[in-house]
Amino acid sequence: MGYTRADWSNHYAAGKGFRRLGDKEKDLLAEHAPAPAGGRALDAGCGTGELAVFLASLGYAVDAVDFAEGALERARAEHAAVGGVRWLCLDLERDDPAPLHEDGYDLVTLRLMYPFLARRMSVVHALGERLRPGGALVVITPVVEHTPEERRGIALDEDEIGLLTEGWETVERLEADQLAVLVLRGPCHSGTRAVERQRPPAGPAATAALAVVTDEAGRVLLGRSRRGMWELPGGKNVGSESFEAAAVRELAEETGLAAEVENAYVVTMLADAAGDVPRLTAVVRITTWSGTLTNPEVDTFDRWEFVDLHVLSCIGAVFVPAAQALDAVWPGVVPNLPPVVSYPLAVDQPPVPGEPAEAVRLRQAMAKTVIDGSWAPSEPVRDALRTVPRHRFAPEVRLTDAYDGGDRAVITRRDGTGATISSVSAAWLQADMIETLCLKPGAIVFEAGSGGCNAELIAHVAGPDGRVVTVDIDPWVVRRTRRFLTETGSGRVSIVEADAALGAPARLVPRGGFDASMITYNCWDIAPAWREQLAEGGRLVLPLEIGGYTRAIAFERRGQVLYARHFTYCGFVRDQGQQARTIPVVSLLNDGLTLRFEHGTAAETAGLEEALRGARHEIATGVTMRAGAFFGSLQLYAATTVPSFCRLAAHQDPDQGVTGIAKDRDVPAVLGDASLAYLTCIQTKDGKRREDKEWEWVVHAFGEQGPQLAEQLAVTVRAWDRHVRADDNSKHADPVLTVHPAGTPGHLLPAGDVLDKKHCRLVIRWPGRHAPLPHPVGRPGADMVTE
């Protein structure tokens, strides 16, 4: 058990081996894990390759992995004639798993090697995540019952087998020549649950310190105790001993690791009770340590291991104070915790480095994807993408999810209905919005809506003399952001709990205003404070909802007017502060349809249901598109140029309704007196190839005014096609957009379509809409008028 990587390599190089693969093991593998068509297997800890070769004979393409090069040299030589096996030198506990196949495996085997793993929990979890649907993890291991006492260190007892098999959908326990053969399938996640030790006797309040320690890869140290739960190093104070000293002492006594008191920081005090006993727990973050991990207290702990943070949500039983302490350092990593009163302390804790090589590789790959997509043309933004450890602001997710270079945000918080209320935005969108800020070295930037990652990216671009003030209304988000910035940050980001619609506290606003501001949640309106706290010529970038369609728009301040300079199609979480807005909604036909009045005022719908039960009028626009065409500019064009605009959503299958709209989809619409027209598309050409397919925009209408409303929408589509649309999806024309304070008289506004919101007036001028503009067909009192 004390062998090092070099020892194992020498072991095999000297001609020594391991227990031979038995016929009974072969029979069980062939019966319970037959190779599917195109099956791929991973033999972890393959040794000289006997099992890998057998799996290849079953029809698997095999990746045979061992960390001992001496074993692999023998395997390559002894099985040179065998095809279908890749021999990989890889330490599954420490090395970057890049050589493994990204598309996963149908079978993963760990034969006679599981007891040798120091990080059993994380390794098995990671291997389980690589299983394809229906795949199996097979562990073949000695058990204590059939192992001599002097060799029981390489065997598993029943408690360890129970821990290994917990959380899998199906578990088959088989036997082969006194070896346990465990066939595990389904999710490998057993939900984390906070548990107490035995009920303590009534008495005075108990105080203790828990040490939170991470390794060079950012994994946290946990011990599997004889009580059947995971715990942090720690224990009670002795006499007048400080909490910091107690944590350092307990760390040494329980794990053999050494730390200095000056590298221990009490970051939070937790107050709760165990039974009738009040309990006060100090959460001590240890930033530097030395030594070799051991288990001096074998009567109390089975073992200690460093666990990946994202695994903390599915490790089974955790001692309550330990779970709460983990949440205090990384809020959100441990779900469903019992209540506790937390007193975070303002301490000058230094950042704590540590990340696996896999994170570095994935971050570089993510940055390359963003750069190749032309979202990060400047070197400062590129360097920020390559440098800022994104995964440390979303520790509850896998590295591959944190560094997804595509269009996916990382959701970090949901409300009671399941709606997303906090996230880390997609990397390309972060880069694009930061680019449009046009930051100079030393810039001071305001951010509304926190999380930490975006603020740290901005701080990196602004440079050593720059500063970011980030504000969020959610106390949980603020606590989480503050902790993550402390753990990883540059020290140039200030986090404030407040309603971001009110701007930054006056004491943090620089003389002359912020050089730039970024809002990171959907905004129906533009808060006056964002303009007032912005320096003349400064940039404000925010996701603005116009007609329910969101665009990240970069504005430049000139006096009291904001001028749009850049548009990006996007989507964000909704605002929660005083600007949060409920969109008026009207349900029709027994909730089969919904009208959404995105501009803020619900129109009269009397007689509309009767019209919807009548005849449907149809107009073909003659405007077509092929697969992959972008039509977001058409939606925005209609929302800003058509009076009485609304959105029509369907909640039933097309063949069950009257509209033909796909279920759970919505389309642009215009409302008249007991009349409605809406825009949809129908397929007009089909073909085997994607490029052979074609669709045409068609307007459907109901009611007496239906034909007139339909023609209005059709004219809108044709105008868009003529003046806005481009064959290149990235070249669609954007409108000229200016934002003026609410109450600005109409005669002082430039020509264009005017959209009034509570705090501002938007003036939109599209190509081809020249003054004087004709007054379109619509109903009196429409929210949008043409000037």
Automatic annotation (TrEMBL):
Keywords: Cytoplasm, Hydrolase, Methyltransferase, S-adenosyl-L-methionine, Transferase. Gene3D superfamilies: Nucleoside Triphosphate Pyrophosphohydrolase (3.90.79.10), Vaccinia Virus protein VP39 (3.40.50.150). SUPFAM superfamilies: Nudix, S-adenosyl-L-methionine-dependent methyltransferases. PROSITE patterns: NUDIX (PS51462), NUDIX_BOX (PS00893). Its EC number is 2.1.1.77. Pfam families: Methyltransf_12, NUDIX, PCMT. The keyword Transferase applies. It is found in: Cytoplasm. InterPro entries: Methyltran_FxLD, Methyltransf_12, NUDIX_hydrolase-like_dom_sf, NUDIX_hydrolase_CS, NUDIX_hydrolase_dom, PCMT, SAM-dependent_MTases_sf. It is an enzyme of class 2 (transferase). Residues 201-333 form the Nudix hydrolase domain. CDD domains: AdoMet_MTases. Belongs to the methyltransferase superfamily. L-isoaspartyl/D-aspartyl protein methyltransferase family. NCBIfam families: methyltran_FxLD. This is Protein-L-isoaspartate O-methyltransferase. It comes from Streptomyces hygroscopicus.
